[in-house]
Amino acid sequence: MVIGGLIILALLGVIGTFTANPAGFIQSIAVMALVVLVVYFLFRKFTGSSPQKKEQRAFLKAAKKSKKRLQQKSGEGTVKTSTLGTLASLKKSNKTKKKSPAHLTVIDGKKGKKKNRASL
To answer: Where are the domains of the chain?
Structure first.
């Protein structure tokens, strides 16, 4: 009831302002829209691209990939064991060895060489 009364009064005020000064009404609406857009873009700029959010997004993406990969492995393993029996279990035990990731490499530095420092 109260909200309905407020809406009716707001509509009467908007119509009265529009009929009294249409150019001023349109100008005030344009200024309000411009202010809202500026505030919106500033808010998005300072809150949207934080490094923590990017890291969190990357972590969630990697977690989904890992989960999908584990589901595929478990799905394939059940099919092999049911069709091949003991041979599949022997092959599976060989696959349980932990492999080193191929995308990681060791870079050997210049450990044997000493720096040629100038003495004072």
So the answer is: 11-48, 51-83
Q: Residue 14 contacts by C-beta under 8 Å, 6 or more apart in sequence?
A: 25
Q: Which residues, 6 or more positions from 81, have their beta carbon under 8 angstroms from its beta carbon? A: 88, 89, 92
Question: Residue 84: pLDDT above 50?
Answer: no
Confidence grade of residue 47 (pLDDT, cut at 50, 70, 90): confident
pLDDT of res. 51: 64
What is the rounded distance in angstroms from the CA atom of residue 22 to the CA atom of residue 15? 10
What is the distance between the alpha carbons of residues 62 and 101, in angstroms, rounded to a whole number?
15
Determine the pLDDT at residue 76: 59
Q: What is the pTM of this model?
A: 0.38
CA dihedral 98, 103, 104, 105 (to 10 degrees): 120
**Dihedral of alpha carbons 63, 66, 72, 73, sign:** negative
